[in-house]
Amino acid sequence: MPDTLTITDNRTGRSYELAIKDDTVRAADLRKVRVAAGDVGLMAYDPALVNTAACRSTITFIDGDKGILRYRGYPIEQLAEQSSFLETAWLVIDGELPTASELLAFTAAIHDNRVPPARIAGLFDGLADDPHPMGALIASFGALGTFYPESHNISDPAVRRRQVHRIIAQAPALAAYAARARKGQPLVPPREGLSFAGNFLYMLQATPGQTFTPNPVLERALDILFILHADHEQNCSTFAMRSVGSSNTDPYSSVAAAAAALYGPLHGGANEAVLRMLHGIGSLDKVPAFIKSVEAGDGRLMGFGHRIYKSYDPRARIIKRVADEVFEVTGKNPLLEIALELERIALQDEYFVSRKLYPNVDFYSGLIYEAMGFPTDMFTVLFAIPRTAGWLAQWEEMLRDPETKIVRPRQIYVGADKRDYIPVDGR
Ligand code: ACO
């Protein structure tokens, strides 16, 4: 059976044979389908890239129908159970689990790069009063690049690797600075002897001069959440990273662009939207009416639905378990009851069942973050910190791919035909 697709252009009666590889045809092969010799040829129209593979990748595998997520072949459940965020970050970037000495060296590199340049602190003074921490984080990623002009040399693998270390290592400090600066609190630099997640909690929650030891259960829960958010193949923010990076932009600017894409409520901003929704619903008895309003088209059930998962998001399942452990320490988040009831009703409701809408990663993560004392508008920041690993892994993969070119989609022009300019007094 030949691996080809034969198509007939009924405008001309001509047939064409397109090669099929990996269940894919090359959109560029459609160009040979043309009516006259000078035509540009047929294009594929796919406005949200819902059925277009834009790269070949070895990083993350998702089977959305079966609810499977793997980084470099390793099931997310095993990584969440047995790995740490830094080990997972190495795996995502490098492709293999690190040996003991590789992990030691990587941990040391992150440790050595974890303090942002001193002048970055001043950046936060220049923002509006009480800025949204995601806006501040996006600005600080861009600003960070100005301290490392070598980062423009993206063709040198050693230079690239240094920036990867700096961005992952400094993301927690930038995030903590963004949160503290808005409250007028003094910035707390990282401390010796704490883990990646522990140091973030310290920089965010410690009072200078007082001892602060992160609760080990909460520290581990945060580390697991970081593992779950490390990568998720070609989503909106990763595409932004690859798209901006394809013009050979430095990684700081590309990460700022990716973070901006993440900020939106349909992407990483959904965890914040979930909490606002749960607060808005307010009590268990209001859940059925809320579900009815969603069915009537009055807003969405935030934290439900996914472009790829058409069954339970495996990350949501893990987060539900972690939530129980966190609530043992913090006390139960009262909104949990509302979330569980929303899930119970939605999973039996025709509207949600027929559209295959299940809880996604954001449905329960916000409940944990709130119980741990993070303000609601920090939630997307908590997503961005570990996702730097995925963005940078995807960027590195893109730069090594011989097929990489600057991203430049086509359009179907549907605007006005040629017309002559009319001076303003004649309009
Ligand atoms: N609540 C109610 N209805 C929904 C929801 C939802 N959360 N999600 C999808 N639908 C409905 C749509 O109205 C549509 O119905 P229709 O066929 O009658 O018009 C159908 O399901 C398909 O929805 P689309 O918008 O076409 O699905 P798409 O794949 O484009 O969107 C998305 C995916 C953006 C995640 C969507 O499900 C959504 O808005 N969810 C809520 C926001 C959210 O939780 N985002 C986080 C995603 S995970 C992440 O980014 C980390």
Instruction: State the share of residues found in helices, binned by percent.
Output: 40-55%
- In what order do the strands lie side by side in the largest sheet? 1-2-3
Computed over alpha carbons, the radius of gyration is 24 Å
Q: If you average the pLDDT, what whole number results?
A: 95
Q: What's the main sheet like? A: 3 strands, antiparallel
CATH architecture: Orthogonal Bundle
Q: What fold name goes in the CATH topology slot?
A: Citrate Synthase, domain 1
Work out the oligomeric state of the chains in this entry: single chain
Question: Total number of β-strand segments?
Answer: 6
Strand content: 5-15%
Distinct small molecules: acetyl coenzyme *A
Low-confidence stretches: none
Overall spatial form? globular
Class computed from helices, strands and strand pairing? mainly alpha
What does this structure look like?
This protein is mainly alpha-helical and 427 residues long. The chain has one domain: Citrate Synthase, domain 1 (Orthogonal Bundle). The protein contains 17 helices and 6 strands. It has helices at residues 76-82, 85-94, 100-112, 120-125, 133-145, 157-182, 196-205, 216-228, 236-245, 251-263, 270-281, 287-295, 314-330, 335-346, 350-354, 362-371, 379-400; strands at residues 4-9, 14-21, 24-25, 60-63, 68-71, 74-75. The strands form 2 sheets. It has a 3-stranded antiparallel beta sheet, with no helix packed on it. A hairpin with a 2-residue loop joins strand 5 (68-71) and strand 6 (74-75). Helix 6 packs parallel to helix 7 (196-205), helix 7 (196-205) packs across helix 8 (216-228) and helix 13 packs parallel to helix 16 (362-371). The protein starts with a strand and ends in a 27-residue tail after the last helix. The relative contact order is 0.12. Acetyl coenzyme *A is lined by residues 266-268, 270, 294, 300-307, 355, 357, 360-362. Acetyl coenzyme *A binds at residues 266-268, 270, 294, 300-307, 355, 357, 360-362.
